[in-house]
């Protein structure tokens, strides 16, 4: 069984350098890091007194909130699709 190649990319998030290791492309890893950096800066602009740890937690909460909402929407659309597909077979 062959192992997928791991990419090791250094990114900058909120002024800190991180080495990210993953199987995704370097451009994907950089894009994700840029989105995290943007979200942290957006939240910081609204809450400038937050320390970095709290800012990171709020960024994670926001990201998971968005993920859950997308997951719910996906399930709703999948249900609608399956219902429509079922109606075609009737």
Automatic annotation (TrEMBL):
GO terms for cellular component: cell division site; cell septum; cytosol. Residues 60-87 form a coiled coil. It is found in: Cytoplasm. The lineage of its organism: Bacteria, Bacillati, Bacillota, Bacilli, Bacillales. One of its GO terms (biological process) is division septum assembly. Homodimer. Interacts with FtsZ. Its main location: cytoplasm. SUPFAM superfamilies: Cell division protein ZapA-like (SSF102829). It comes from the Bacteria. Transmembrane segments: none annotated. The keyword Cell cycle applies. Keywords: Cell cycle, Cell division, Coiled coil, Cytoplasm, Septation. NCBIfam families: PRK14126.1. Activator of cell division through the inhibition of FtsZ GTPase activity, therefore promoting FtsZ assembly into bundles of protofilaments necessary for the formation of the division Z ring. It is recruited early at mid-cell but it is not essential for cell division. This is Cell division protein ZapA. InterPro entries: Bac_CellDiv_Activator, Cell_div_ZapA-like, Cell_div_ZapA-like_sf.
């Amino acid at each position: 069984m062959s192992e997928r190649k791991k990419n090791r990319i250094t990114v900058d998030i909120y002024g800190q350098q991180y080495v990210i290791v993953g199987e995704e492309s370097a451009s994907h890893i950089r894009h994700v890091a840029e989105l995290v950096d943007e979200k942290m800066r957006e939240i910081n602009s609204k809450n400038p007194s937050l320390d970095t740890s709290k800012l990171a937690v709020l960024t994670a909460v926001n990201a998971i909130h968005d993920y859950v909402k997308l997951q719910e929407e996906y399930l709703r659309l999948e249900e609608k699709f399956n219902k429509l597909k079922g109606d075609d077979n009737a």
